[in-house]
Description:
Layout lengths: L8 H16 L9 H21 L5 H28 L4 H29 L1
Amino acid sequence: MGKEYSYDIAIESFNLATAINRALRPYYNERYDRSNIDQLNRLSSSVSANIEESKNSKSTKELMRFYRIALKSSRESIHRLKFLAATLPGLDDKFGLYLKEMERIKSILMPCLLKLEAKSK
């Protein structure tokens, strides 16, 4: 039997948000990109925060609401990651890894949300 692998989406999304924040700090003083940097920081932490908040959901409807917000934030994070990787020097490689991880988070959230929606009908 192979080694069992556990993926905790709450922990991984938190780790990703903090990694993105740390990677963007050196670029924060470049005024022309500040709005995109701020937005990416808010979006990536929103993914993490909404996944964490979903753990205390009192109903399926409430759980779906948190997952929807996290999914929307992950989609926009992907766009911002691509944009900043293309416009800020030296971020291509690092953001490529972050992009893959955010895609993975999105690919986990989507089927979970679809399953919950089907179940709630």
